[in-house]
Amino acid sequence: MAAPAQAFGCTYNNVCLWSDSGHNGYVRNDFNSRTNWSQISYDGGAFKPLYQGDGVIDNVSSIDNWDPDTRVSVYYNSGYFGPCFKVEANGAVSNMASIYITSSKTANDNMNSHKFSNECLGATYNF
After folding, report:
1. Which domains does the chain have, with CATH numbers?
2. Is 112 exposed, middle or buried (0-12, 13-18, 19+ CB in 10 A)?
3. Minimal CB count within 10 Å: which of 8, 18, 41, 108?
């Protein structure tokens, strides 16, 4: 499956992390795994970290994985710890509010690190 057309600007083999659902808002087009989203900013001079504390509206809300070979594991805590889920290779998650990482907390605006791997024990998504 090809990555979503609305994700213009994403680079082959990279993951794009968007601040809004539907692959909108600020974007980080990234080739590397990142242990702590609060230490990196969106592209384009936004100077806004991808994670600014739980529930902050500009935190990551949708993801495009443009890597055709590798899933991307997304973690609640920095350092690849805590509740997690995976985004399928060449897959996407258009609204992280649809993913529950605990019985009462969604992934939307709450995740803090990602790794190009299949290590996460959580579910794999592509929607």
Report:
1. 15-125 (2.60.20.10)
2. buried
3. 8
Confidence of residue 8 (pLDDT cuts 50, 70, 90): low
- Burial tier of 2 (Cβ tally within 10 Å: 0-12, 13-18, 19+): exposed
Distance CA(123)–CA(11), nearest Å, equals 25
Question: What contacts 63, CB < 8 A, 6 or more positions away?
Answer: 15, 16, 17, 18, 72, 74, 87, 92, 93, 96, 114
Q: What is the pLDDT of residue 44?
A: 87
Cα–Cα distance measured from residue 22 to residue 6, given in angstroms and rounded to the nearest whole number: 8
pTM attached to this predicted model = 0.92
